[in-house]
Automatic annotation (TrEMBL):
This is Stage 0 sporulation protein A homolog. GO terms for molecular function: nucleotidyltransferase activity. It comes from the Bacteria. InterPro entries: CheY-like_superfamily (IPR011006), Cyclic_di-GMP/3'3'-cGAMP_PDE (IPR052020), GGDEF_dom (IPR000160), HD/PDEase_dom (IPR003607), HD_GYP_dom (IPR037522), Nucleotide_cyclase (IPR029787), Rev_trsase/Diguanyl_cyclase (IPR043128), Sig_transdc_resp-reg_receiver (IPR001789). NCBIfam families: GGDEF.
Amino acid sequence: MSLKEKILIADDSEMNQMLLEEILSDKYEYVMAKDGTEAVDILEKNEDIDLVMLDINMPKMDGFGVLEIMNLRHWISEVPVIIISSESDVDFIRRGYDLGASDYISRPFDLTVVRRRVENTLMLYARQKRLVRLVEEQVYEREKTNNTMINILSHVIEYRNNESGQHILHVRMMTDILLRRLIEITDKYPLTETDISMIASVSALHDIGKISVPKAILNKPGKLDPEEWEIMKNHAAIGDSMLRDLGTQQSETLMNLAHEICRWHHERWDGRGYPDGLKGDEIPISAQVVAMADVYDALTSERCYKKSFDHATAIKMITNGECGAFNPLLIQCLLDVQDQLFENMHTDPRRFDYRQEAKRLSDEMLEQKELMPNNRAHSLLTFEQKKAEFFAEQCGGIQFEFDHWTNTVHLKDWNAPVDQREKSMYLTEWNDVSLLSEKDWLAMREKLKATTPERPEVKMIVQIPVNGEYRWQRLTVKSLWTTKYKNYAGVLGHFKDIQDEMVRRGEDVLEKCTEDSIAHLLKDLSRVFEVVRLVDPKTNENLELDKDGKVITTPIHCYEIWGRNEPCENCISSRSLEGKEWVTKLEMRDRQMYFVLSKHINVNGRTCTLEIASHEDEAECARCGGDNDAPTRSSFMNFYRDTLTGTYTRLYLESFQSNLESADAVAIVDVDLFKQINDTYGHPVGDEALKTIANTIRSGIRGSDTLIRYGGDEFLLIFSKIGEEVFYERLKQLRRAVQETKLPDYPEVKLDVSLGGVYRVHPLSEAIRQADLRMYENKAKHANANHAESR
């Protein structure tokens, strides 16, 4: 990868191109375009252009046309442009500046002028890019905190009234979109960027008063009676009162907005809302916009008392006044942004444009010349130097960087294909990295706690997945510290593959081990590994040594230890015999993960395989983790567990969707006749039915599969590394297992489910949508079949 800055020279004269390249020397990397159309095409395909030198008079598309497109596509804020022309007309030059050009060079070229203007322009934009990166990290940290609090609040609301946890996130997103459009079409409401950001953030509090409403009313499937409706309406005033109880120590502006939104987001433009009957612009604009966002999301979401409406129907209902009266200006905003709204509501609602916000803040700082050197900026430069030194010593393999300030990890796997080599992620939990086991993660964290600026480096031997197989690695990690205050700032790490080295060590041990010493070898290994045994790879029978060292066959099969009744699909003993080498794999027992290694050996002339295994014990992980404030994966993940069924909640899907995107198969499971069970036997029996079905499904899937309570009586199943035929057969088996299950106290209750599954459909959101459609198709078939039987 070139470290030179890249310049695009767009000029229809080959002579001018050669002349500019000669003037600027080999200090830069060059890309040439002979007309404006080709220049735009190059900019589209190359994100690493640092500067454009743009001739104005070119065929097909002139330089002004290129500048207009760069403005339209927002490239001009990232890539500086120096226009080139022999024209000296002032209006001509002014037009170039108006379109965003950074500088102007006239022909014939002056060597010194060309060089200095190129250097100055690149230096100015490099300064801007560095500042954007610094500010972006600060914005990212701020938004990370905001989103964490909003996600917790979403989880509370979801727990209380069975609304989707995304409701608050959707309201926040729509509030932001509507406000930005509002300030574009009118100056009636003088809102700043800070105002918009603050209103969107505190919109999360709009229904906080519902915490006081009884769950029976919140989750009532039918229409509320007058008394219940009065109780429900009280939530607006109660939410306002709750905020007032916080006192005045909070931000005055923020709290004023929170009061407005909580109390008045159910007021209506015509004065027929509640709790105070405000009319028109007596209602603060913050509450008006949140009210519209709240209504739209309520219409397009399924609730306990209604089905969802599609996007177009919801827009029509709001604009026709079927859902109350709204400010005509907001109605116009809604119509203007409806396409953007539809697109955003079907993407991750937690998405935030950090770059745009960082660019805005850095522009303000540049204008105010607030660029005093600080510890963070100096540390970044120091870290770049340390990183270069560290990775120069650790060539190849897998490298990673962890930034403590932004909580992000950047991985680079030099063994992977070029397009899959690098990956960046925001770290929310230990298995996001998808490399270290929990035990190794906690052990590494404990070792890092003991590092200091003077002794920053530690090493470990670990196993990580490489191309579907677990291989031994030597992990070297180095902690980073700020120069001035000696504060922990991040980690550099490198995995070096030592599988072959470990295998050679194993070979050496076995070569030195005589038949007489096999028993001693097994005894020594048993001190380290939980499972140590000899297996007949042809019959899958466990073997033992008698007192004379002779091999004898036992009636126990090797696969029984994994809770199986037949040989494993991925039999490690057979593979080690075929390959004549060490083989590794993962196995599950009692929902615990085991690392298994196997190697063929000869004992008294009999071919055997030596099999050793160790497991990840959560109690041991907790001990390795150090302080009591660091939760184990088990306790941490309980936050994402549904209290009734023990499955993951919808919040788990929303929080870790990126980790599940590579799944092979997805299925939606819907409980049949669930409402009838509730109506006939009562909700406690319905709850028992849900728990029983969830346990039945869980017992029929693998530990690597994911089961999520997707809705009230719907479950989402996500399968990884599964064949297509096996997947569809598994769905049939799960349905049969549910049908055969009985409730102990209510044997007359018939349990059944409808399932819909898709294989190798991506992205995950589309797979879920298609699986849901297939589930409803199958449910209709079941209903028709039952109807035919009853007739």
